[in-house]
Amino acid sequence: MQKTLLLSIAIVTAASALAGCGGGLAAPFDQLKSQPVTVYRLQNFEPPPAAMGPNGLPLPVPVPQEIQTWLGGVGSMLPPTLIPPGLLPGGTPAPTANVARFHNFRILGWMQVTDQGQKDEILDVFGKDKGWEATRSSCMYAEFGFSFGNTQPAPGQPLPLDVLVSLSCNQVQAFNFNWPHAGKMSPSSDASSRITTIVRKAFGG
Fold first, then answer.
1. SS3 content of the chain, % helix, strand, coil (to 5)
2. What's the mean pLDDT in 42-56?
3. Residue 159, φ and ψ in degrees, nearest 5
4. For the stretch 13-50, what's the b/e string if a residue is b when 16 or more beta carbons lie within 10 angstroms of its beta carbon?
């Protein structure tokens, strides 16, 4: 009887230790399971007004090196329809009309995530410390945005918790909350791939 009791205690203790090692979601992501989640496609780079050459024609504006590297790496996992316009040779030019923005980046499209499994995947990516590494960039060319909560709150209601994601710059930027993974705002290669997959599923790419 005593051996059985000790064995039961040992099993419970081991299970608790494993749960601790696996780690739950960091705040505030641990409290967002029932909140609406909106995913945005963003124009990561807007060329400045082109300077005119001696022949009277506008000079080409180079795409930043970080974005070029992303297009040849993780960005190649996206279909051309989900690449921001104006980046691929011969592709659709970048928009010039005044459109809605998400933290100063043009919104190319948005989708509210309704599938709970997909919402859980998003929370798992952002809420687990293991998916984030020491910040290794200072640029911010955001391709995607994630908003947790009501994106049009009434007066007195809390603002949504927003995250800009720049895979070309290997970093994120948080708004309306403190990023929980101190000093680690660069997604790991696995987290980058998971974010890319999430976007493809959200927009049917």
1. 35, 20, 45
2. 73
3. -70, 150
4. eeeeeeeeeeeebeebbeebeebebbbbbbbbbeeeee
Mean pLDDT of all residues in the chain? 84
Distance of CA 30 to CAs 5, 10, 92, 125, 132, Å?
Answer: 33, 28, 40, 12, 16
pLDDT of residue 190: 96
DSSP for 130-172?
Answer: GGEE---------SEEEEES-SSPPTTSPPPEEEEEETTTTEE
For residue 144, the one-letter residue type is F
Beta carbons of 102 and 162 less than 8 angstroms apart = yes
Dist CA 164 CA 105 (whole Å): 9
Per-residue model confidence as pLDDT tens digits over 7-18 = 333 333 333 333
Region 189-194 average pLDDT: 96
Q: What residues pair up with 37 in beta bridges, in sequence order?
A: 113, 148
Comparison of pLDDT for 56 and 62, the residue scoring more: 62
Q: Is the dihedral of CA 106, 108, 113, 119 positive or negative?
A: negative
Domain ranges of the chain: 25-46+58-203
Q: What is the mean pLDDT of residues 159-175?
A: 97
